[in-house]
TrEMBL record:
It comes from Streptomyces asoensis. Pyruvate binds at residues 55, 211. Its EC number is 4.3.3.7. The active site is at residues 143, 171. The record marks 54, 117 as: Part of a proton relay during catalysis. Gene3D superfamilies: Aldolase class I. Pathway: Amino-acid biosynthesis; L-lysine biosynthesis via DAP pathway; (S)-tetrahydrodipicolinate from L-aspartate: step 3/4. PANTHER family: 4-HYDROXY-2-OXOGLUTARATE ALDOLASE, MITOCHONDRIAL (PTHR12128:SF66), DIHYDRODIPICOLINATE SYNTHASE (PTHR12128). Belongs to the DapA family. It is found in: Cytoplasm. The gene is dapA1. SMART domains: DHDPS. This is 4-hydroxy-tetrahydrodipicolinate synthase.
Amino acid sequence: MTPAARTAPAPFGRALCAMITPFTATGTLDTDGARLLADRLVSAGCDGLVLSGTTGESPTTSDAEKAELVAAVREAVGDRASIVAGVGTSDTRHTVRLARDAEKAGADGVLVVSPYYSRPPQDALEAHFREVADASALPVMLYDIPGRTGTRIEPDTMLRLAGHPRIVAVKDCSYDFLGAQKVLARTDLAYYAGCEEHHLALYAVGGAGYVSTVANVIPAHLRAVLDAFDAGDTAGAAVRQHRVMELVESMMASGLPGTVTAKALLGGLGLPAGPVRAPLRPAGRKTTDGLRAACERLVSGPHS
């Protein structure tokens, strides 16, 4: 088939991993592990790495650890992949400070989540994002995940924010496919699927790609979905997307955060992960065994 032409903007690449933050057995930041994991992910097809997001346990890492993580991963991947640093907090001044720290540490962009708990109205939310975007020279990816923050970035707010020269992308966890397409049709914002089951669907209507927790474990399998679609093999892309769904469901719909399930699998594979930080707790033996079985079925099956 003739390859499909892609015109959608993808400022940070197409296949992005929401990377876990490796810790040592005693719970300190494992920069050596972060370098090893980052190199593995990029070598397996990740165009970009999102650090200190939800999967990266940003609420329980310090400002200094966040900057140290960016510097370590930058050293490991060089210019082979983009680095997007999560800087969102519930405090605008703190978020501004983290954005500037990320720029100094070598990030290529920042991920900014809606301020949580305070649930600002849309005009205050817009002002928050503009202030953060004005604080550094880095491009901004907005993070719309109302299930965690309690506040939606409404489509009309997205349309206004799209006019800011440094607000270039959205990580979409809104579960509002209609709203996402409304913004896609009327702006140049790059939309990245933040929900694993939406990777192919959003890509097919002009999305830029994905930011994936599951990519910590199967980066090449997820990249293959986009590659098949770009090659014009839309049926093959759908088959590949369907094949990863068992593992996606096991990791993301088991009642445990994706951070917990990703670290359980990575640890079982002998890859850098370490413990999660409280209040999160590690996966139990039964859950871990089920995750490993789902992963083994995927890896040993066709198109592996």
